[in-house]
Write a structure and sequence with these properties.
Blueprint: H1 64-72, H2 74-79, H3 88-91, H4 98-106
Length: about 120
């Protein structure tokens, strides 16, 4: 998003917390929200992007093209996210339930609520 600020880019939620004794809260991309990593996320430079897979702070995307598709229509991309493209060990850490997706979309950065076309 640029500008050295933090924002919720609607990234599919991956991380620990699946299972009985683990707590997980949605990652809103803000330092004021406790996330599973407890770190805020700021945009990174694009230099040598084709050499740095996986993409996004949690590795949700395997190719730059899928990141662009995600940003073009975040609500649609989040609802249609295919976790089968992830390594098998990571697939089980995907939080793709309706409640999580709704929470992410509720807090989505306003600039990404409508398709960019």
């Amino acid at each position: 998003m640029g500008g050295q600020t933090f924002s919720n880019a609607g990234v599919p939620q991956l991380g620990p917390g699946v299972g009985r004794d683990r707590r997980w809260t949605s990652d809103a991309g803000s330092s004021s929200t406790r996330t599973f990593t407890a770190l805020p996320f700021a945009p990174l430079p694009l230099r040598n992007i084709e050499l740095t897979a996986p993409y996004m702070h949690d590795g949700a995307f395997c190719r730059p093209r899928t990141v662009l598709k995600h940003y073009n229509d975040v609500p649609k991309a989040l609802r249609e996210y295919d976790s089968s493209k992830l390594p098998p060990a990571v697939q089980q850490m995907y939080h793709g339930d309706d409640a999580t997706i709704s929470t992410v979309l509720t807090n989505l950065d306003g600039r990404l609520r409508q398709p960019l076309a």
